# Entry
Amino acid sequence: MKSLLALPDSNTGRGSTLRLEIARLLIARGQVAEAAAYLDQRPPAGANFNFVLWNLERGSIAKRLGDTARAQRSSALVSAAWTEADEPLRQLAAERHLAVIPRAARSPQK
# Structure
């Protein structure tokens, strides 16, 4: 893990994606605060796909750490990005959202 944390983003060509994966590894190890600090070192620049993924992960971490305000800000950014997406992406987002809702919690189909 120490080697991954020391790896410069520019050496991989996958900077933002690699940072998210390393943060997820830290979370899996129970190092949630460290994952938050690691992501905060270098958020992605610009409003792009990686920025949305970063906010999705950062909001989840904030929620786990009890930082409700940060979690809500990140959630709002992600929601805005999805609502502004083109139709195929909105449909995909809706399908993915439905996929994570337990069947028992879904409205019955008519």
Summary: The chain has one domain: 2-103. The helical segments are 2-6, 15-28, 32-41, 49-65, 68-83, 87-100.
